[in-house]
């Protein structure tokens, strides 16, 4: 790999940005494409698909054999609320390859005994997220039912462009949440990104079933996420 490309790749990793190293298999030259950069034509279209799938591999592009080495930041799920749903979601998320953090200031809920081995933080979300900010490779799942705890991280997730934002609650609860977010200046389009009630509608009734619905929703959102032009053909 070219030294400049290696340097740029390391910078992208530190910034939690995706990148694809494109190597010409015939000539041996390479180039690095970082998300947000535009590549025209079929190569750009292929890079977009690789950003979504995360899969590396060789491909024929306009008569040339190239290898696409894909580097994605590890996707993570940040759950607000140390509740039964969170207990069920953690092992499922780990199996699916997602790092997971649970944040809850309620120390009666956020105990090591209830969440053994989990990255658990018993503090207010605004304090935690100031040092561990959300990003485009984060999913935010708010499940406390308490606006004093849930509202700040939901707003932070929308501002950070998280690939998934979900919140537990009835339609009446969400309607009140929408009013509060509009008062903070969020548009209908921004608020419309929130999955509420949280998770895919599978008729879930138990905490474990809700956790399945949430994880399925997160995975779907990650694989279908907007790349904002990363690697896409020029307009």
TrEMBL record:
A Pfam family assignment: XdhC_C
Superkingdom, natural source: Bacteria
Alphabetized InterPro entries for the sequence: MoCofactor_Util/Proc (IPR052698), XdhC_Rossmann_dom (IPR027051)
Phylogenetic classification of the source organism: Bacteria, Pseudomonadati, Pseudomonadota, Alphaproteobacteria, Hyphomicrobiales
Domain XdhC Rossmann intervals: 77-218
Residue spans crossing the bilayer: none
Name recorded for this polypeptide: XdhC/CoxF family protein
